[in-house]
Structure formats: structure tokens, C-alpha cells
Specification:
Low-confidence stretches: 162-173
Radius of gyration: 15 Å
Shape: globular
Order of helices and strands: EEEHEHEHHH
Distance between the termini: 17 Å
Oligomer: single chain
Strand content: 15-25%
Length: 173
Amino acid sequence: MLILGIDPGSRITGYGVINCVGSRNEYIASGCIRIKGDELADRLHQVYAGVAEVIERYCPQEMAIEQVFMARNADSALKLGQARGVAIVAGTNAALPVFEYSARKVKQSVVGKGSADKVQVQHMVAHILRLPGLPQADAADALAIALCHAHSRSSLIRASGSTQTRKHTWRNL
């Protein structure tokens, strides 16, 4: 099961692709979609096109994305929400089921502490996926989102006693 994790942003959108095989997670790819320009509509188009290109290249079966949270700056939160929205549309246009996770849940799942900082997330992602070095921060966050989904997914499968999953059962964990 290939899982695409997305850490949305209006300037940098991180992505991470892992292969979830049973309880084992293997690194496939990660990187950043770097957005250029000042016009919001152009930047959102670049986010959409970049996520669509990643989906086309790696053909994931599921997509996980971080939920938007309200920061101190409402304008930044709105732009983040818009970037997140176009990334979700890229996933749904490719018929991917999309799952959403809070930043706190992602950190709890990967680091064991919901208040973990970016460096701790980078180190744990590198350790879990046996990477030779630390991934860039936004790519590490995207890989952490994919790992969180893999953990949540396998926990639900174990709890149900099932070996099969249904696409709609896991939506919006």
C-alpha cells in the first residue's frame, strides 16, 4: 500500500511517499514543491500541479494530509487552508481517498509526544524509515503524516480483525 503524505504550504509543500507492508514501512520518496511568485492564485495552481505530478509519478493508493490549525496570524492560516484545499482536490481528482490528521496526532504517532518540535520529528522519521540522513523539514513532516496514517490504518485493521480494508471505512480518521 503506497501512502502519500502531504504537508501543505503556500510557499513550500512537503511530500512523502511510503510503502506500508503489514507493520513495516519503507521509504519510497520525499521532497518539497517550492512555490514561486506573489500572486496567490498562481501559487495555488503550483501546489495543485506539483501534488498532481507526485501522484502521477508514484501512483499512491491513499493520501494523508495535515489538518489546518489556527495560528496567531489569521491570514497565514487562510492561505494554508487554501493550499491544503488544492492539494486535497489533486488527490480526489486522482480518485485517492484522503485522510486528515492534526499536527498533534502526527507528532504523537511518530515521536510519542504531541508537542514534539520539527527536529525531533526529523530524527524519528529518519530512524523509523532507516534513512541515511535527516530529510528536509517539510519533507520530514510529510513523511510523518504518511507514517501516522500507516499506524492508524494498521491499528484499525488489527482492532477489526480484518485483513481487508474498505476505502470509505477509514476516511477522516
